[in-house]
């Protein structure tokens, strides 16, 4: 056997074009690691193989020893950390302990300050900012000139020595040091960006969306994307540990009704036929249950072609789940666990209680099926105490309903008038608002004193739970409308009063949703959740007589006034599903054509099952304490469904239309 020294020498010789390979020789093994000078490009050429071939060549008798070479992923990880040709460190990691180290950094020029004899450059990458210094005394004249001409967002690489800063910057982690640059490479020049790459930028939403790749360089967007990835990772951890299997379902499918229009895709190979993009993987996940997969989840894109009310996206992401052999309680427990896990891991918040509220109560007390329960201001129904006086507006109303605004008696007349204007805006739609001030001395002063005496107003205060110093705001009219209007007012006032602290988390299960919902315009019922939701046991007969009263095994998880998820126990037998389709207005033929595959599957042993889906974009935004989901989507669309960066949607050319057997019939 060769001596260690001989092996060393032979390997050195054989690997001289890979000078950085270090060899540790032990009795039974030879371990190979790559040092930091190794070119990262080298890794793409399967280093293990190259190195092994070299070492196993005839001249080197290694029979008695095994060669351990770190596997490729490990090397690549290593490479990212240390062995990168472009940089030895990132721009966020150097500290005082690195002083006197030779380093190589790469990144973007955030800004430079040129004092003539000295130039400071802030070099930025994803990890932070490091200050570079060039000065007349220590920097060559050419490099000095190069440094002076660096523009914002130029991509550069520098080599240099870490030195202590004369004036330290306590605001950034690298603020104790700077790099005295000995070598400067301009890797790429950059045009002047159309907005500043700063946390608070001068760029408006439109321009930032057009140049989203520049926007992503800004901390708020970058951090939001990293935050989203963390949430998704924790979702995967939690559900995988709980025995869920992540399974992909197809995107080119047939309509799955979730209450929106489908996006459709023409099929070239099947002339005149179209796929629909999934509004959700609903039918597929049910089929996975019939397939015996038991616990499924998927972080999945869904597509819904609906008018984009503020902060909706035509394509969005769901955490979609389904479980077999479960009842509602099982599902609520699993997803309560998931939400608790996320709040703990991502926000460091421990939540004990996930209260439950009946849908009917949510509507009665908050006028809303997703109440924000971080604050009170519950509705008080005033019909009994406010009707049958001489005030016609209330007498003719289906519902008279009010809330007590804490401390609202301090509002001036002008402020109250502005509030009345606010509820009269078309977006809210109230015809007016009655109010009653609750004075500190226990008396009341209302806008309808003509019709109501102090005793009447005291009853209003009792019903709305108003205290001295509060303001009672009362709306009236059609029950559903008045509730919706007062709900909007409640949320607005709570926002103004600072009662909606994004750092406080108040989850709530809303349960026992109605199965069907009446479409006022058409007079038809449609599924409130979707057509596969099962009615509560024993209520199916009611479908014929009082369809609007049938309750479903359906539930929503609400967080801080936002619906973050919803689901149901499903129908799992063909008979019930057929009755349901009938009530939704499908003929037998239509039901068969659209959902025959599901009905057929139900005849081959479908287990009882149910599930739920969380909206990931919204969930992430709430956990991140933000209002808008766009910040958490790398490439979002605008309110008209456009991606203004790539300019989509866009016309397609005639050849493509012909290939798809399509002719356009444009309205304008
Ligand atoms: N597919 C439903 C939705 O997208 C969720 C579910 O019922 O599981 O809302």
From TrEMBL:
The keyword ATP-binding applies. One of its GO terms (biological process) is aspartyl-tRNA aminoacylation. Signal peptide: none annotated. This is Aspartate--tRNA ligase. The gene is aspS. Pfam families: GAD (PF02938), tRNA-synt_2 (PF00152), tRNA_anti-codon (PF01336). Transmembrane segments: none annotated. Keywords: Aminoacyl-tRNA synthetase, ATP-binding, Cytoplasm, Ligase, Nucleotide-binding, Protein biosynthesis.
């Amino acid at each position: 056997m060769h001596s260690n020294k001989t092996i060393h020498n032979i390997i050195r010789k054989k690997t001289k074009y890979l000078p950085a390979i270090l060899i540790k020789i032990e009795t039974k093994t030879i371990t190979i690691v790559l040092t930091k000078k190794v070119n990262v490009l080298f890794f793409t050429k399967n280093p293990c193989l190259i190195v092994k071939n070299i070492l196993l060549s005839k001249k080197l008798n290694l029979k008695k020893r095994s060669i351990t070479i770190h596997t490729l992923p490990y090397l690549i990880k290593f490479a990212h950390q240390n062995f990168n040709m472009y940089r030895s460190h990132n721009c966020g990691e150097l500290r005082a302990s690195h002083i006197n180290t030779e380093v190589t950094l790469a990144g973007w020029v955030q800004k430079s300050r040129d004092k003539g004899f000295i130039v400071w450059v802030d070099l930025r990458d994803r990890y932070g900012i490091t200050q570079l210094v060039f000065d007349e005394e220590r920097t060559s004249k050419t490099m000095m000139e190069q440094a002076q001409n660096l523009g914002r967002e130029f991509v550069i690489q520098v080599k240099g020595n870490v030195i202590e800063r004369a004036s330290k910057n306590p605001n950034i982690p690298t603020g104790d040091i700077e790099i005295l640059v000995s070598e400067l490479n301009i890797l790429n020049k950059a045009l002047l960006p159309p907005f500043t790459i700063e946390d608070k930028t001068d760029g408006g939403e439109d321009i930032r969306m057009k140049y989203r790749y520049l926007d992503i360089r800004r901390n708020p967007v970058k951090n939001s994307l990293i935050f989203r990835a963390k949430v998704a990772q924790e979702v995967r951890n939690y559900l995988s540990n709980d025995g869920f299997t992540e399974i992909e379902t197809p995107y080119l499918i047939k309509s799955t009704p979730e209450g929106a229009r489908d996006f459709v895709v023409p099929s070239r190979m099947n002339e005149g036929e179209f796929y629909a993009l999934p509004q959700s993987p609903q039918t597929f996940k049910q089929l996975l249950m019939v397939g015996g997969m038991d616990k499924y989840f998927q972080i999945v894109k869904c597509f819904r072609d609906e008018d984009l009310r503020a902060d909706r996206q035509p394509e969005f992401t769901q955490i979609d789940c389904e479980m077999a052999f479960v009842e509602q309680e099982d599902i609520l427990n699993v997803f309560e666990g998931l939400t608790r896990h996320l709040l703990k891991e991502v926000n460091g918040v421990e939540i004990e209680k996930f209260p439950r509220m009946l849908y009917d109560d949510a509507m009665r007390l908050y006028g809303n099926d997703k109440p924000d329960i971080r604050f009170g201001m519950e509705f008080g129904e005033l019909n009994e105490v406010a009707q049958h006086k001489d005030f016609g507006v209330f007498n003719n109303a289906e519902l008279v309903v009010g809330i007590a605004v804490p401390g609202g008696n301090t509002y001036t007349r002008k402020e109250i008038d502005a509030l009345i204007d606010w509820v009269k805006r078309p977006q809210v739609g109230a015809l007016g608002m009655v109010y009653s001030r609750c004075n500190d001395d226990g008396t009341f002063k209302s806008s309808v004193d003509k019709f109501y005496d102090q005793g009447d107003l005291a009853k209003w205060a009792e019903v709305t739970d108003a205290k001295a110093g509060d303001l009672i705001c009362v709306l009236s009219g059609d029950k559903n409308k008045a509730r919706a209007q007062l709900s909007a007012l409640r949320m607005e006032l709570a926002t103004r009063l600072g009662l909606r602290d994004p750092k406080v988390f108040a989850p709530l299960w809303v349960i026992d949703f109605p199965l069907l919902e009446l479409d006022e315009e058409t007079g038809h019922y449609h599924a409130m959740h979707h057509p596969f939701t099962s009615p509560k046991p024993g209520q199916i007969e009611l479908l014929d007589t009082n369809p609007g009263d049938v309750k479903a095994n359906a539930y929503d998880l609400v967080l801080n006034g936002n619906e973050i998820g919803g689901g149901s126990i499903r129908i799992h037998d063909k008979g019930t599903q057929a009755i349901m389709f009938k009530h939704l207005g499908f003929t037998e033929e239509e039901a068969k054509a659209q959902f025959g595959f599901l009905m057929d599957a139900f005849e081959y042993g479908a287990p009882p099952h149910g599930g739920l889906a969380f909206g990931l974009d919204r969930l992430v935004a709430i956990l991140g304490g933000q209002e808008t989901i766009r910040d958490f989507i790398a490439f979002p669309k605008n309110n008209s469904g456009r991606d203004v960066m790539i300019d989509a949607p866009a016309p397609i050319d005639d050849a493509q239309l012909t290939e798809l057997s399509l002719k356009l019939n444009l309205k304008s």
